[in-house]
Amino acid sequence: MRIGELARRSGVSTRSLRYYEAHGLLRAERTPGGHRDYGEWAVDRVIRIQALYAAGLNSKKIAQLLPCMRDGDGTPNEIATPRLVDELTAERSRIDRMIADLIRSRDVLDDVIVTASADLSSAPSPALAAAEQVNEPFSS
User: Fold this and answer.
1) What integer best gives the mean pLDDT of the chain?
2) Which of 6, 25, 129, 139 could form a Cys-Cys staple with 20, CB 3.0–4.6 A?
3) pTM for the complete prediction?
4) Contacts of 78 (CB under 8 A, 6+ apart)
């Protein structure tokens, strides 16, 4: 498939696909006319690349990882090295820490929302408070 079709099917811009190719994350055959030609496997590969970027990995780490991942036919391209497994385990730990931090932040926000909601439901409406001030006699 051509680059435009891969972009459409994977939801990624053609510019991103060229970037992936330039960084060794994606490869394309060339037609006699010089156009990029991708196999069906490329859709899954691009989706994996996007997921790895979303997980916080950089292109260098993704380039190391991709050859170890299973392709659409279920076979790995290469065998992972112990060093790569250690690095990926460290990345996973980093992601776990980020998730824990986000959960703590969400819990704090939940507490603030509950408190603010309770305060709002027990407080008189601004219109009622303004009306009460108008009707109160002046005190000296």
Assistant:
1) 82
2) 25
3) 0.60
4) 67, 68
